[in-house]
Amino acid sequence: VQRTDELVEEWESWFEDTRLEEDFRQKEAMRSVNAEFDQALAAHEAAQETLARAKAAMRNREKEHGIGLAAGQAEARMACESADAELQKADQAAIAAQGRFDKANVARLAALEECGASPDALPGREVDVKDLNNVLIRDVGERIGKSSKWPLLIDPSDCGRKLLLYAGCSVASFWRPEDMDPKRLRIALLSMLRAGGILAVDLALFGVGVDRSLLASPFEQVRPWLFEELVARSAEGRSRLLEVQASTKRARFHELVEKDEKKNFGLEHFDDERISKFKFVVVTATERPHK
Fold first, then answer.
1. Are 160 and 200 in contact (CB under 8 A)?
2. Among 9, 77, 144, 246, which residue's Cβ finds the most Cβ atoms within 10 Å?
3. Rounded to an integer, what distance in angstroms lies between the CA atom of residue 145 and that of residue 124?
C-alpha cells in the first residue's frame, strides 16, 4: 500500500511538472503574437470609439438641422458637411485599425492552433437561435428577471434583432435620429412597460465604440435621470424606474407620462404582472463589445 501511495505521488508530481512545462511553452510561443494582438485590439477599440462618437454627432446634427436641410439652407448644409467630414475621417481610421486587428487575430488563432492552446471564450452565455425565445423573450427560469443587470445580446447573425421585432418588441437603432428622438424613445419605453415587452437598443456593428456615457445620452435627453434609473437594478432584479416614490405614491416611470397622454398611459393601463416582465436589452453585432 505504501509503495502504491508513493507511485501515485510520483505520477501526480510528474503530471504537474509536465502541465507547467506545457503552459510555459504555450506562453512563450504566444508572447509576441499576443503583444501585437493586444496593441491591435487597443487601436481598434480606440478607433471604434472615435467612429461611434462621430456617428452620434452626425445623427444629432441631422436632427438639429433637418428642417434647414429640407429647405435647402446653406448654413444647415455646411453644418452637416463638417460633421460628415469628421465621420468620413473616423471611418477611414476605423477601417485601417480593423484591418490590423483582423490580421493580428488571424495570426493569433493560427498560433493557438499550432501550440495546442484554446482561444479565449466570449463573455456571457452562448444561446442557440432556437432557444432565444425561451431565454430572452419568455425568460423561462427568470434568469433575466432576477438578475441585477440587463442583458447584452451579441448577435452577429442578426437573428436576435429580427426575433425581437417579430415578437412585437421595440427595437430602436442607436444611429437613426428618428429612433433616438426623445419623444419616440419615451413612448417606446412606456409602451414596453405597459405591455411587459422588451425595449432594445441596437448598436449594430459599432458596439466596441459605444461606452456607457454615449449610450446614456439619448435617454438623458428625455430626462436627466432616466438612464441611471433604468439600468440600476436591485439584487432581486427590480429596476429603480419601477420603485414607488414616497412623494407621489407612484412608480418613477409615471413621471414620463405627459398630461395629454393619460388616455394611453394612465395608471389604469399598467399592471404589476406585465411591468415585472419588462426588459431592457442592448443588441450589437460585434463579438467584442465595449467593456
1. no
2. 144
3. 16
